[in-house]
Amino acid sequence: SMTALSAQATTSLTGAGATFPAPVYAKWADSYQKETGNKVNYQGIGSSGGVKQIIANTVDFGASDAPLADEKLKADGLFQFPTVIGGVVMAVNISGIKSGELVLDGETIGNIYLGKIQKWNDPAIAKLNPKLNLPDQNIAVVRRADGSGTSFVFTSYLSKVNSAWKDEVGAGSPVKWPTGLGGKGNDGIAAFVQRLPGSIGYVEYAYAKQNNLAYTQLVTADGEVIPPTADSFSAAARKIDWSKSFAQDLTNQKGENAWPITSTTFILVHQTQKDAAKGKEVLNFFNWAYEK
């Protein structure tokens, strides 16, 4: 019938939230539009913003790296599903140090973010990097200023690997940061690290690659020193039982080559859709992406 045809001509979806998966969603949206003619407009505004917008019904889907608790989903009539697994890397700007050369562990990163380690040639960093010529350079700590799923993942990790961090700061999407310069979004952190000599920041892997930032190797839960790779992010999810709940913490997982700061990112949609065609189209888009 005529009406069905016009409804299917083209649809345009809006989504907002996490900056962590934004590069992937942008790529998907571009290919999807070429294939189907349907537009998907995704705004990377941070996970907290995405959750607020989907609850307020101002977007067709929200996106968050921090999974919502089952009670919260029920209360707001939302359904949550995971889309991609990604890794948070430590991006650094240290004179004379190239990408992949520096090794850090959780205890040391926690102490840098607590403001306890302030120089790049600190004995704790030197001990992990006996072969590197570390400069006597001040560390400029960069962290998120906005409510961020990437911060949630990073601080969840630090809470597991640094007891002082766990006691004094803890995990959260915003936390009371003991120190550091605040940037908005993964792109804001990347821009600061690029410009600031001596800086360290945490960003999703794609942002480090896109901005040609030097990133570090990390010591895994098993004590292995590894660089970040797509395989190491997948390895962190190997032992997870998704049937219990999608709200799983992938940080500091044991297992060979498991990147310690790994996260799933989630899409949030309303269980009951005001506009059935749009609701269906959101699922069509993500199903299409899964099958690629």
From TrEMBL:
Pfam families: PBP_like_2
SUPFAM superfamilies for this protein: Periplasmic binding protein-like II
GO biological process per UniProt: phosphate ion transmembrane transport
Classification via InterPro entries: ABC_phos-bd_PstS, PBP_domain, Phosphate-bind_PstS
Molecular-function GO term, any one: phosphate ion binding
One CC-aspect GO term: ATP-binding cassette (ABC) transporter complex
Domain PBP residues, every copy: 7-286
UniProt keyword Transport, yes or no: yes
Keyword Manganese set for record: no
Superkingdom of the organism of origin: Bacteria
Keyword tags: Phosphate transport, Transport
Coiled-coil ranges (or none): none
Segments passing through the bilayer: none
Family matches, as CDD domains: PBP2_PstS
Quaternary data: The complex is composed of two ATP-binding proteins (PstB), two transmembrane proteins (PstC and PstA) and a solute-binding protein (PstS).
Family: Belongs to the PstS family.
Purpose: Part of the ABC transporter complex PstSACB involved in phosphate import.
The name this protein goes by in its record: Phosphate-binding protein PstS
Species for this entry: Proteus mirabilis
